[in-house]
Design goal:
74% helix
Length: 152
């Protein structure tokens, strides 16, 4: 949260507290003279609470966006795509569909990288990334750079 947002939240909270105090004072008087001020303070509290809720909602949206960006920029994405391409090269299309729930053809770049992986690197990669532990959602998100063909 930025300093400006923190200051805005403090400002609105201070004024909400002030308006609540004024409402209590007005409620102690038993006359209609302060009725306009009473309604004004009540409306201001509603408005300021709405603004505070909007600021908090915006902050939550930013947090969710950052989590999505973090997920998409994981270091393993490149390695997983290479591993998926290797899987695609060594299995039938039916096996790929059965495993991941969609037809999948990796980009030629990943196919070439998968072909270049040496046995030692391949073993290390398999130790590091186990495709069976990834959910179908994660795999489909990673497959985003690949061509997917719908089933007919």
């Amino acid at each position: 949260m930025s300093n400006e947002e923190k200051k805005a939240i403090e400002y609105f909270q201070e004024h909400i507290n002030y308006f609540q105090e004024q409402i209590k004072i007005i409620e102690n008087f038993d006359c209609d003279y302060y009725e306009e001020e009473y309604e004004l303070y009540k409306n201001r509290i509603k408005q300021f609470n709405t603004i505070l809720n909007l600021i908090q909602l915006q902050q939550k949206k930013i947090e969710i966006k950052n989590k999505i960006i973090e997920f998409c920029n994981k270091d393993l994405t490149e390695q997983v795509r290479i591993l998926l391409a290797k899987y695609w090269l060594t299995h039938t299309n039916d096996e790929v569909f059965e495993t991941f729930g969609c037809d999948y053809v990796p980009n030629i770049e990943y196919q070439n990288k998968a072909r270049e992986i040496k046995d030692i690197l391949e073993l290390e990669l398999h130790k590091k990334i186990n495709l069976n532990t990834l959910s179908k959602f994660e795999i489909k998100a990673i497959m985003g750079g690949a061509t997917s063909y719908p089933i007919k």
